[in-house]
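[09:14] KT: can someone run the structure on this one? pasting the chain below
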Amino acid sequence: MSANEPTQYLANPDVSCREEGPDGALLFNPDTDQVVVVNVTGLLIWRAVTQPRAQDQIVAALVEQCDNVPPDQVAQDVNEFLQKLVNKGIVGIYEGVVH
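[09:31] RB: done, structure tokens below
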């Protein structure tokens, strides 16, 4: 990835996701033995990063799927959520080449 390409995020393949009905999901990282509870929006973000995605792609997908959400607020919330997941090892920074 070159310096001018946006950072791409990718779900940790070792993390398991158990959906909890309409309320969200539980993400379990066996490497750290941590469980993270995510709401429906968090689950949408998790699904988005099953393939390498840039933050702006994730924001665009959420804005498209959700009614009446301000894109600026979505961008801020996605950024904060991704950073939390990266810090917990749930999501990583993709270092490969996207085709």
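[09:33] KT: thanks! The chain has three helices and six strands.
[09:34] RB: yep, looked fine to me
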